[in-house]
Amino acid sequence: MWLFLLAVLVGIVVGKLRSGGLAHLALVRVRSLTLLILGTALAIGPGVLGFGAGFLQWSSFALLAMFGVRNLSLVGMPIFLLGLTLNFLPVAANGGMPVRQSALVGAGLATHESVDQLDLGSRRHLATPGDSLMPFADIIPVPSLNGVYSFGDFVMAMGLGNIVVAASRPRRRRGRRLEPSMDPSFVAAARAAAKAQAERRELPPAADPKTWDSAAAHAAERLLLSNPAAPPTEASGGEPSPSPVVEADDVADSPDSPTGESRRVA
Length: 266
Hints:
Elements: H1 2-17, H2 22-25, H3 33-49, H4 53-70, H5 77-94, E1 97-99, H6 101-106, E2 124-126, E3 140-142, E4 147-149, H7 151-168, H8 184-200, H9 209-226, H10 248-252
Parallel strand pairs: 1-2
Antiparallel strand pairs: 3-4
Helix pairs in contact: 1-7, 3-4, 4-5, 5-7, 8-9
């Protein structure tokens, strides 16, 4: 249990370093959260109650697996499910999780003389020569966490940490990012400004309205970028501001000019 709490803590710290925060965790859409709560409760139940290892342990695996499948789209959840599967294999093969005696001694939980009398609860038992799939059993001592863990536990912790890191980061909005010249409000203002300036200089209108709009927006875009002030528009109710002025050459020389060639007004 301490291993998973450490994974959550590390995930929060890494997420914070990557411009994340706890506030974003509340925005994550988690499906069937009840399955996670019940599965976790049943996983620690046999160790607390001292009985019911078979039924409660199988139920815990089933509930946690269903929760993982329901939330498979979360970053890190496939890794979590892989670790859960690796833990399920030795439990299913041996009727419980085998624990290597040397690992218990290495973790400081017992001595060579007292390891046989150590109570491991109803979920785990001391490994015997008849146990199979021992590479996936509890064989990794971690003295700093005062426990013995399996390879599947570390895989689950890695997946849990990835879930927390991804969930604590700001959500990215989906959709195509509009460039300034493609923003509707910008194009509307640029179109009106360029049209007003062009009419003042008596620039002949374009034959194709779509091409004219493109040429006007192209010329007015340079005007607005050079002067962030509000552009003159037809809705302003008066004559456009005389400064700055978009010369007729700017519109005529535009790559999107309807005539395709430079045009000057005397």
